Amino acid sequence: MAVRFRREDRRATRARTVQSPRGTCVLLVWVVLYLACTPPASAVATDTTQAMRPLGVSTDRSAALVDVSRRLIFDYRLVAAEDTLALLRQRVDGEMAAEHGQLWVEMLRCFVTEDPAAFERFDTASTTLETAVESHEERWGRDRWTRHVEAERRWMDAVIAGRQGNYLSAAWKARSARSRSADLESDFPSFEDPLLSLSLARVAVASVPRTFRFLLRILGFRGDTDAGLEQMERVASQSRTNRYPARVSRAIIDLALFNEREATTRKLRSLLEDTPNSLLSSYLLTFALIEGRQVEEADAVLERAHDLMSRRGYSRLDYLDYFRGYIQFVQGDFDAAQGAFAEYLARHPGNALRAQAMLYRGLATEMTAGWAEAASVYADVEAFRDFDTDRWAMRWAQQRAEQPMSAGDRELLLARTAFDAGRYDEAERRATSVWNGEVDMENQDDRAEAAYRLGRVYDIRGEDAMAVTFYDRAVDIRGDARSKWAPHALYYAGRIFLDRENRTAARHRLERAIDWPTPYDFSDGLEQMASRALDRLESGA
Questions:
Q1: For residues 260, 263, 264 and 270, what is the CA-based torsion angle, rounded to 10 degrees?
Q2: Cα–Cα distance for residue pair 65/372, rounded to 1 Å
Q3: pLDDT tens-digit readout, 136-162
Q4: Angle, helices 195-207/144-163, rounded to nearest 10 degrees
Q5: pTM of the predicted model, to two decimals?
Q6: Which of 210, 360, 436, 539 is most buried, taking the most CB atoms under 10 A from its CB?
Q7: Angle between the 334-347 and 319-330 helix axes, to the nearest 10 degrees?
């Protein structure tokens, strides 16, 4: 069989723009997590002079405790990390460094557990760190490390405020943090540790649509992708504490902003080879492989992660249970997927991925046990958060609760799972059977979906003419007004013409996607992606 060239590979060197709303979410989560992870001992500079000791400690013993505690956090062994931080806290020079580490432990717990008590503990830890910085300055004087720790504390406060939906508060806290980090950059040009926050901010601001970029400039933020990436690579090679997180951040940016899936998985594979005991590294690689539709390798990495999580001392990372269910779902093992999603829903107290897990559990139940049993599962699906994904899950569940799947519905679901698992020939065959009327369709929306899915298959293969033909058919059919098929088809067709430098055709489709007249699934994410693509067109990149 001839090897087909995939569009992602062909476009990897093209101008960079955001392609995936889910990937953007992962980037934002990583902005939160990155400082919780520090390099393994082999990656840390061995110079233990006062200037090179981390986070303001003044002795080799304290520096060693900092490195050990951070490595345990990176492994996601949080209790052991806290035990090490307790030893560091008892040392004369270790209080500020210990409280800094504790704040990152609480930050991780906020995002992983979504427990309200975790957010309360974070607030307490932030106040404690603020006091520790003041005490350190009184004893040792104000230096670059105290200023760096205080700036990071403010960055973390901003992110947690945003995570709780307090966006105005988050913006002002981020503005204060940026000012302090920028002052450090100016006063200590060779001090790399504060640069990771600034580099991430510069890349992120440069990636948002122009309207939002203008508002961010009012708050003092400036975007520059190239400068941000250059700084990030500098941190990865020279920072005392942030080499490892800079390496991870660069990999995640490749996926979240540039859609360079192969580059991301290559970097994260290398990362996991260097840090084989890291649950967080396994989690990140699993996610990247799922996004890249490499589910067999993702399944192998996931098994490795579950083995780590079962060992003594590791904290639970519930999202791995969701990944297990999703992989089983797209592999067609619906019985196993039901159990994995049920386990995730039973274990995880928060709302992250809850609506999707409930929907997929219902679909898996209908595929195995029938509609009557699945209907009660569908009825429980709610949009627990004001996210595209949650609203889509609730709408699809409501639709599925009304009546059993038709033969066409089942074939399209299998076409989707085949595509998401990277089985493109199977996806093409199943979508074609619906398009050609070989199976019974419930309505015209099934036909529109079949056209869209065929367009996606041909797009991935780099068969542009066929892809555009089916994208245009998905637009012309106009199925359910709430479905994504038509506006998303316009966006992907616009991307093809943008890559072929047909500016008129690209602009026409992208503007139609942005101006689509009715609400539809994933509209927020698509409008952002189409706006960024138009930015790319206007810039001539």
A1: 180
A2: 58
A3: 999 999 999 999 999 999 989 988 998
A4: 40
A5: 0.84
A6: 360
A7: 160
